[in-house]
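Re: that chain you flagged

S.,

Sorry for the slow reply, it's been a week of failed gels. I finally had a moment to sit down with the sequence you sent. For the record, here it is as I used it:
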Amino acid sequence: MVHNNSTLVFSTLFHLLGFSVYAYTWYYDHMYVRHKLPHQHEYGGKFKFLTIWCLFFQAAYFAFATVTDLVQTSGPTVVGRKCCDLRDGFLASIAFPFAALVQTVFWSLYAVDRELIFPKWLDNIFPSWMNHAMHSIILPMLLVEMFIVRHHYPSRKKGIGGCLVIGLSYLVWILYLGFVMDIWVYPVFRVLSGAGFAAFILISAFVLLCFYSIGQMITTKLWSKVPEENFKID
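Prediction finished late last night. Pasting the structure tokens below so you have them in one place:
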């Protein structure tokens, strides 16, 4: 796969499609869903949920990837290289691992007992396409992204460090909501004991770091044998 003008056009269209899907999902949620949810008027609103954080991450990633593609149309430049580095770092540390975590945890809990993560009454508020946009397509979209665009992962120190910063930020946020505001974000947290809650957090953190490594392995597997000089634009 040579990163020539035709593939750059294709990647630009794909990135624009991804941004459009997530931006419209955000818009629909804001205009037609948010006001129907009882938790909307609680402290933190919809930003209590990791799904919403992840939706924002995906929209931001595909928006910036589109901008990066447009910058690259003028050929290899210092600005283009920096944009690629930022794009690749965002994918490695935030977009991929959190998409994989959200999709895996959501559907795993849903399979065990949907009331723990997405109670049945939400079906009357969330259209099915919106649920899938938030929980089903996020990982496949990024796998396609990894296949059509060559990414250079940052050093593990920087990459994992960025991933942990976001993860710890969300952990502090939900702990504050739970213990200070008495707002437990997900129903599953209400049925877990203290030890169970700690185990859930530790396992989620471990899985998140595993997904970081999986993303890096996928990128290496796809592109390690493709000569770097085949690419006019990295």
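What I noticed first: Confidence is low (pLDDT under 50) at residues 230-234.

Talk soon,
D.
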